[in-house]
Amino acid sequence: MIVSKNPYSGETLQEHRESSSEDIDQALEKATAVFKEWRTTSFSFRSQLMLKAAEELQKNKQEYATVITREMGKPIQQSIAEVEKCAWVCEYYAENAEEHLASEEIKTDAGKSYVNYAPLGVVMAIMPWNYPFWQVFRFAAPALMAGNVGVLKHASNVMMCGKNLEKVFIRAGFPEGCFQNLVIGSKKVEEVVKDDRVKAVTLTGSEGAGSAVAATAGKEIKKSVLELGGSNALVVFDDADMEETVKTCVQARFQNTGQSCIAGKRLLLHQNIAEEFTQKFVDKVRELKSGDPMDEKTFIGVQAREDLAEDLEKQVKKSVEMGAKILIGAERKKAFYAPTVLADVTPEMPMFREETFGPAIGITTFRSYDEAIELINGTKFGLGVSLFTKDAQKAQKLIPRIEDGAVFVNELVKSDPRLPFGGTKRSGYGRELSKFGIREFVNIQTVYFK
Q: Cα–Cα–Cα angle for 34, 39, 40, nearest 5°?
C-alpha cells in the first residue's frame, strides 16, 4: 500500500493500492495500442487537445493546487503558480511543436535529402515530489505533441497528484491511454524500464535513482534523459545592485521551502561587500512568514517529509562542527526546518560540498574572479549558476569558464518553456523544454532520394 500523508498535519490523506504486474502489463498494452493511432494524428489535432489541457489547468487550478499543498506541503500560492506554469508549457508546445519538428532539407549529392523527426512510442517518466505537476508537464507536453505516449511513475508521497495529472488529460479529451499514471513504488521501476514496449525513459530526481535507472536503460539500449540534483551558486560581485540582488537571492534559495534542484544553495560573496550583503540578506530571511501551507500569506511551509528535514539538520550541524557560524535558524520541529543562514562556510563542509534540499544556505567569500570561478565549479554538480554584477562584459567573459548547464545574470535560475533546461556532471544529461527538449524523444531519421 502506498500512502499519501499531509506533512504539515501528519494526517493520512489516502491509501493507494499498488499496481500489480498484471496491471502494469494492461497499462503498457493500452499505451502501445493507442500509440499506433496517436502517432498518425496531425499537429493541429494534438494542439487542440493540448490547449484544452491548458484550459483545464487554469479552470481548476485551485482544485489541483490544494492537493499539491496538502500532499507535499508547498505553500498554496506557490502551488497555484505551479499549476499556472503547467498551462503555459501546454500552450507553448501547442503553438510551437510543429515548427520544432518540421522536416529539415539538407543539400547533398542526392536528388532530395532531409531529416525527419518521428515519435518513438511509449516513454516512461519517473518524477519527483517537489514540483509534482510542473516536472511532469514539462515532459508530457512535448512528448505527447511529438506523437509519443507517456506512462508516469510518480514519487510515492504524491500519488494523489499522479492521479490528478492523468485526470487533466482525460478531462481535456485525450484518447484513453495517451497518458497513464502507474501506482507503483521504486521496486517496480526496473520491470517497466526493461519492458520491450517502453522505448525510452526520463527521470527527474536524486543522483542515486538516476544512476540506477540509467544503468537499466543503458543495459537495455534505450534512450534516457536525467535531470538530477544541483548545488547552484549565487555569485555576488562587488558592483552588484545590493537591494535587488538580496531580494533575488532570498527568492532563489527559499521558494518552495528550498526544495528545488535549481535553488541557489551556495551564496558566494565578494569580500568587499560581504558584511553589508550578509546583514541585509539575514534581515530579509527573518521577514519570511512560516506557517500553515494552506494560509495564503505563508512563504515557508514544512518539508515534504520529516526525514528530509532531519537530513538537512545533519548537514547544518556537521558544518557548524567544522567551523561554520549560525546567523539565523538551525532549528527543527518535525518536518519544519526554520530558514537558516550559515557564515564562514568552506568547500570541505556539507553545506558547500553536498546538495542541501531545504531552507538553508551557506555563505562563502571570494577575493577575485579566478577564485569565484574555482568556487562555482568546485562541486560535483553542474545545473546552474547566477551571476550578479552591473558589468555585462565581465559576465560575458566569465561564462565560457563556467561548467554548469545554465548561467543567469542578475536573475535566479529558472526553467522556461522557450529555453533548454538541463545540467552537466552529476546533475545529469540531456535537455528538457524548447526545441531541444522535444527532440530528445524522437527518431531523428535521415531520408535520402537518389
A: 105
- Alpha carbon distance 252, 232 (integer Å): 10
Query: Longest C-alpha distance within the chain, in Å?
Result: 71
Q: Would the pTM of this model clear 0.90, i.e. be above it?
A: yes
Ramachandran assignment for 395, one of left (phi > 0), alpha (psi -120 to 50 degrees), beta (any other)? alpha
Question: Other C-beta atoms within 10 Å of 387: how many?
Answer: 25
Q: Which residues are catalytic?
A: 227, 261
Q: Which CATH class is domain 2-228+427-449?
A: alpha beta
CB atoms within 10 A of CB 157: 20
Residue identified by cell 536525467 is 226
Which residues is 442 bridged to in the sheet? 119
| Of 388, 421, 335, nearest in space to 85 by CA | 421
In order of 20, 36, 146, the CA distances from 41 in angstroms are 32, 10, 10
* SS3 state at 244: helix
| 170 membership: H or E segment, kind and range | helix 159-172
Q: Which helix (H) or strand (E) holds 373?
A: helix 369-377
Topology of domain 232-416, per CATH? Aldehyde Dehydrogenase; Chain A, domain 2 (3.40.309)
The ranges assigned to domains in the chain are 2-228+427-449, 232-416
Q: How far apart are CA 64 and CA 444, in angstroms?
A: 36
Given strand 112-119, what is the order of strands in its sheet?
104-105, 112-119, 442-449
Cβ–Cβ under 8 Å, residues 421 and 90 = no
Tens digits of residue pLDDT in 16-36:
999 999 999 999 999 999 999
User: How many angstroms separate the CA atoms of 118 and 403, rounded?
Assistant: 32
β-pair partners for 150: 123, 179
Say which residue the cell 498494452 belongs to: 29
The full length of the chain comes to: 450
How far apart, in whole angstroms, are the C-alpha atoms of residue 327 and residue 347? 18
Q: Tell me the chain's radius of gyration from C-alpha atoms.
A: 22
Contact 78, 134 (CB under 8 A): no
User: d(Cα 143, Cα 148) in Å, to the nearest integer?
Assistant: 5
Q: How far is CA 166 from the centre of its chain?
A: 19
**Contact residues for 350 (Cβ-Cβ < 8 A; gap 6+):** 314, 315, 318, 319, 356
Residues 6+ away with beta carbon under 8 Å from 224: 200, 201, 202, 203, 213, 214, 217, 218, 430
The single residue listed with the C-alpha cell 552529476 is 426
- Tens-digit pLDDT profile for residues 265-323: 999 999 999 999 999 999 999 999 999 999 999 999 999 999 999 999 999 999 999 99
